[in-house]
Each structure stands twice: as C-alpha cells, then as structure tokens.
Write a structure and sequence with these properties.
This protein has helices at residues 16-38, 42-57, 59-71, 74-77, 97-116, 118-122, 141-144, 154-167, 193-210, 235-241; strands at 126-131, 134-140, 174-179, 218-222, 243-249. The chain has 279 residues and is of the alpha+beta class. Strands 1-2-5-3-4 form a five-stranded mixed β-sheet.
C-alpha cells in the first residue's frame, strides 16, 4: 500500500524581521545608555578641573584635594549634592608664613652645624650644603672609620656629638646615608659595599641615639657605590665618594627655590680635596 505524501510546509520568508527588530531595539538601548553616560555636569567638571590645576602647580595642594574629596565625595562620584559648597582652598604661595618660618629654621640649623664642624670644614673633610630638601652634612669616611670597617674611631665621636647636639634642638626627620667608592670589598663582615655602607650609616645613627636624638626621627640607608659625587677613576675622586651624609630634612618640603645661607652661614665648598683615606 503506497504511503501518503506529507504536504510541504510553507516557508516563512519574513522571519528575519524578528531578528532585525531585536537588533534595532538593542542598538537603541545602547545609544541611550551611552548618551546618559556622556552628559557632563558643568559645575562638577569646573571644580574638579580647578582642583587638579592647583594640585599640579603646588605640591601641597595635592593634600588639600584629597581632603576635599574625602569630605565631599559628590565632587567625583556625582551623588547629586550641591556642588557649589565644595570650593577648593587657596593654595599656599612660596612665601607663605609657614614656608618662610621653615626656611629660617633650616638656616639656623645650617649655621649651628657649620659652627660645630668648623675645624673639619676648613680641612676639607666636611661639607655643609642646603637645598630644598634640607641641610646636608657630608662627612668624609676617613674622619669616621678605618679602612674596610664600620666601627667609629674614637676621635670621630666628638665631631658627631657636636652634630647630635644640634639635632636634639630641632624636630626635623633625619636621614643618614652611607656611600662607598666602586672598589669591591669581600670580607667576613661585609660581603659587598652594600653591607659596608649600611653598617656605617647604622653606626652613626646609633651614636646619635646615644646622644639623645630620638630614634623615631632617624633612618639609616646604605647606597654602596651607586650615588657617587665624583669620579671613581682617580684617587681623590674615590676618597670623595667614600662618605656619610647626614641629611636634616625640611619640615615643609618642596620649597620652590633653593635657599642659600648667605652671610650668616656660608655654604661649604672647600677648594682643597680631602686626603685619600680608608674605604
């Protein structure tokens, strides 16, 4: 018996309209969302722009911007609060009373250090400089240590004690840096110049602590031979690079211009180089 042939189903040629309609609906929703995101509140944008400009002009304004954002999160998050109430604070100028007071304080510190280290400065073994970071006392390693050692020599404690007396009179943070030349060292105590420079900086910090300088204000850093101030190709240059720097950091920091000691305390730039001494 022959099977009955099934009638062919009619093909729907318009079914693509369903996919097309879905696509158009999604595309419309996408552009609506993009338009909503792209709308800018002119008041919020102006406040944020002014704050960023002030922050880049003055480093201290960065702290003000952070404080302003913390107290008024609507400036950045757009919570709908009145934007006019969040006005950036005026930035301090380079000659603000706080900066002038800090500059005068650092000049006084530099003058006291120069007076305390005057004999060694005349011999070219100590240099005192002042910069926006603070006052730097550069002491030749021959004044403090024997060759390849990090134990302070007895005669050096008197000079460091004079510096410590000055440091006890101020509240500035202090950074002690040890530096060496590029000649390698390999001893049981110091496998490399890293250990030697760090130990020498630590010895100076320990003496300052014993002389009454609060330990919480100090940090000891060893740079080995990575920050030379002179060439390592000559004997005198290597002698200059073997040093310990005592950096009395500026309280305010970021002073726009370099401060000179002028007549009260001349910056030490000795012409006679320090005698070649122990590493």
């Amino acid at each position: 018996m022959a099977r009955k042939k099934k009638p062919e189903e009619h093909e729907n040629v318009e079914r693509w309209l369903v996919s097309y309609a879905d696509f158009i609906t999604l595309l419309f929703a996408f552009f609506v969302v993009m338009y909503a995101i792209s709308s800018v509140n002119e008041g919020k944008y102006r406040v944020m722009s002014d704050s960023l400009i002030n922050a880049f002009k003055d480093p201290q304004s960065t702290d003000k911007l952070i404080q302003m954002q913390t107290k008024n999160p609507e400036i950045m998050s757009g919570t709908g609060q009145p934007i006019g109430k969040a006005v950036p604070q005026p930035r301090q100028t380079a000659d603000s009373p706080e900066r002038v007071k800090a500059a005068e304080s650092m000049k006084k510190v530099a003058k006291n250090v120069l007076q305390a280290m005057q004999p060694l400065i005349q011999n070219g073994q100590v240099r005192v400089t002042q910069s926006p970071r603070g006052v730097t006392v550069e002491i030749n390693a021959s004044v403090l240590f024997n060759s390849g050692e990090a134990v302070l020599q007895p005669q050096s404690t008197e000079a460091l004690a004079a510096v410590a007396e000055v440091l006890t009179q101020v509240d500035n943070p202090i950074q002690v840096e040890g530096h060496t030349d590029n000649i390698p060292i390999n001893s049981p105590s110091f496998p490399s110049n890293w250990e030697l420079s760090s130990s020498r900086a630590g010895s100076v910090v320990r003496l300052f602590t014993e002389r009454g300088v609060p330990a919480a204000r100090m940090v000891a850093i060893g740079y080995a031979d990575n920050r030379p101030v002179d060439t390592n190709a000559t004997l005198d240059g290597r002698s200059r690079n073997r040093r310990v720097n005592v950096l009395i950091l500026n309280e305010v920091g970021g002073v726009a211009r370099e401060i000179t000691l002028q007549d009260d305390a001349q910056i030490s730039q000795p012409d006679t180089p320090a005698s070649p001494a122990a590493r």
